[in-house]
Write a structure and sequence with these properties.
- Keywords: Coiled coil.
- By secondary structure, this protein is an all-alpha fold.
- The chain is about 75% helix and about 0% strand.
- Helix 1 (about 5-20) packs antiparallel against helix 2.
- The longest helix has 21 residues, at about 25-45.
- The two termini are about 15 Å apart.
């Protein structure tokens, strides 16, 4: 299992990528949104 810092770093990277102007293809945006959501849930579960 990855540690929280690594997961948080990947989450922030994905957020930057998703907000980037180059990410305008809807399918790619949707994929990143789902991945970002899954990482968010993983982080929340660690703190429950």
């Amino acid at each position: 299992m990855r540690d929280e810092a690594e997961i948080r770093e990947q989450y922030e990277f994905l957020q930057e990528q998703l907000d980037s102007e180059e990410m305008n293809h809807e399918g790619v945006r949707e994929m990143f949104t789902y991945y970002k959501r899954a990482l968010g849930w993983a982080l929340e579960e660690e703190h429950i």
